[in-house]
Amino acid sequence: MPDTPVLIVGGGISGLATAWWLARDGIEVELWEADDRPGGRIRSTRERGYLTERAAGLLVNFRPQVDQLIQQAGLAPRRHHRDGALNRYLVHHGRLVRVPMRLPAMALSPLWSRAAKLRLLREILVPRGGSDDESVARFVERRLGREILESAIEPFVAGTLASDPELASARAVLPRLTALERRYGSITLGILCNRLLKRRRVNQADTCSFRGGMETLVRTLADTPGVRLRTGVRAEGLEPIRGGWRVWGRSAGGQCRRDAAQLVLSTPADAAAALLRPLDLPLAQLLLGIDYAPLAVLHLGMERSRIPHPLDGSGFLVPRRESLAFNGNLWMSSLFDDRAPPGQVLLTSYLGGARDPHRVEQSRERLTGDTLADLGRLLGASGDPDYIRLERHRRALPLYHGDHPARVAEIRQRLERSPGLHLCAGYLDGVSVRERIYQGLNTAGRIGHALESGHRNWSIGAVPAAARPAGG
Q1: Same domain as 269, residue 352
Q2: At what angle do helices 281-288 and 404-415 cross, to 10 degrees?
Q3: Are the C-beta atoms of residues 91 and 378 closer than 8 Å to each other?
Q4: Distance between CA atoms of 249 and 136, rounded to whole angstroms?
Q5: Residue 262, in any domain of the structure
Q6: Where in 58-108 does DSSP place strands (E)?
Q7: What's 154's domain CATH number?
Q8: Which domain holds residue 106?
Q9: Is 32 within a domain?
Q10: Paired strand residues for 241
Q11: Is residue 228 located within the same domain as residue 283?
């Protein structure tokens, strides 16, 4: 008999969310995390009065299921909403220009030429087209024009996803826009129909964090009753057994083993591939084909008086053609009032990504100097920062390049050969914290159904000896 109903390998936000949804439904969970603390790359640091994030800096949510988790996990009192309705900016010909949020303002905005605005108006006349493997660049240029792609969509894809629109899958990266074309034949017509049907409210997003930073979220999930968290345990091998899965791991105390009815791998794609390679080589190869973007996160704390710009927004994104050091800059102290000491501001820049992968390897001095020079030109910032913190991620975000939906479909087809085995991670259906919480809900639902039905299919065949670690 299995030792535990569910074992989750990987204690990042995907694994923690899956564990929380399962525990909420009364299902016991054991969770292994190789690091000495849960949360994966989500880590908040309070230092010299500044609160910085190692990776995800905020939660942008429009899913009621995520609100449900926040409420039921007791996080609502600690949720920190952004301060006011803040502006968003784009860099345009070397200066910051406010992004218009309504159609009348868009008509007057200097961000786009008259020809680009007329092209937008004609979008409703563009026939359906494209293929399943159409790139973001091709989709946007076909429907909205080249200028909108270069000035708006490219900086969004590069700045928020660290991706390249020429390579990124439109269906994977812009699922709501591609769905509007499929259903209505036009993005514009789809938006208008949704508004007439009063679906607009569904699409409104709430931007928030938590008191103490995003780490408050992962620590709360890790402390959920019914979730047995074991840190410092690295999975080394696995095999199917009658009644579930056997997993070997190693910790400071030596080798360990656990038998589980249901197994979830919530690790990065390469780590999951290493565990699955002896059992299913085609599945492992599919996982290894998923690239990750390198990213550097640079936090700069400065005196407010040294920046003449009002900082009346959430920050700005940078089109490739502007040739700046970074892809985007968040004004964290404008978003949340606990991010910097009184009289100071915290500016967070994101460098590298698929657009400029080698920049991540540059020296701290070079990254800081180039960033300060660009902030000086855009914000009028002067003088040296009072605080600097640099985080480097060689494999930060999975890239949904190529026909990513087809790859994910193949991965799921391969998983059907291994009942009781689940994958839940950012390389599947969304890299954001919101989507990974939602993936956790779906994974927990499948596990709950499997445990309730008691359905098992153990005709898996012999297990290669290589699947077992030495001494297992």
Answers
A1: no
A2: 150
A3: yes
A4: 41
A5: yes
A6: 59-61, 79-81, 87-92, 95-98
A7: 1.10.3110.10
A8: 102-202
A9: yes
A10: 244
A11: yes
Cα–Cα distance measured from residue 383 to residue 413, given in angstroms and rounded to the nearest whole number: 56
Place of tokens 């390897």: 361
DSSP state of 361: G
Q: Are residues 133 and 162 in the same domain?
A: yes
What tokens does 4 get?
A: 């535990």
Give me the amino acid identity at 349: S
Q: Which residues lie across from 6 on neighbouring strands?
A: 29, 262
Q: What is the CA radius of gyration of the chain?
A: 23
The amino acid sitting at 303 is: E
Contact 19, 225 (CB under 8 A): no
Question: How many domains, the chain?
Answer: 3
- Burial of residue 295 (number of CB atoms within 10 Å: 0-12, 13-18, 19+): buried
Domain boundary among 398, 428, 452: 398
Residue with tokens 């952004």: 82
Select from 183, 202, 221 the last residue of a domain: 202
* pLDDT by 10s per residue, the chain, length 472: 788 999 999 999 999 999 999 999 999 999 999 999 999 999 999 999 999 999 999 999 999 999 999 999 999 999 998 766 689 999 999 999 999 988 778 889 999 999 999 999 999 999 998 788 899 999 999 999 999 999 999 999 999 999 999 999 999 999 999 999 999 999 989 988 877 776 545 456 889 999 999 999 999 999 999 999 999 999 999 999 999 999 999 999 999 999 999 999 999 999 999 999 999 999 999 999 999 999 999 999 999 999 999 999 999 999 999 999 999 999 999 999 999 999 999 999 999 999 999 999 999 999 999 999 999 999 999 999 999 999 999 999 999 999 999 999 999 999 999 999 999 999 999 999 999 999 999 999 999 999 998 744 322 233 333 344 444 4
Tokens of 205: 């997003």
DSSP state of 446: H
Residues 186 and 240 in one domain: no
Q: What is the pTM for the complete model shown?
A: 0.92
Q: Are residues 173 and 52 in the same domain?
A: no
CA 317 to chain centre: 17
Work out the burial of residue 203: count CB atoms within 10 Å of its CB; fewer than 13 is exposed, 13-18 middle, 19 or more buried: exposed
Q: Is residue 89 part of a domain?
A: no
Residues 279 and 420 in one domain: yes
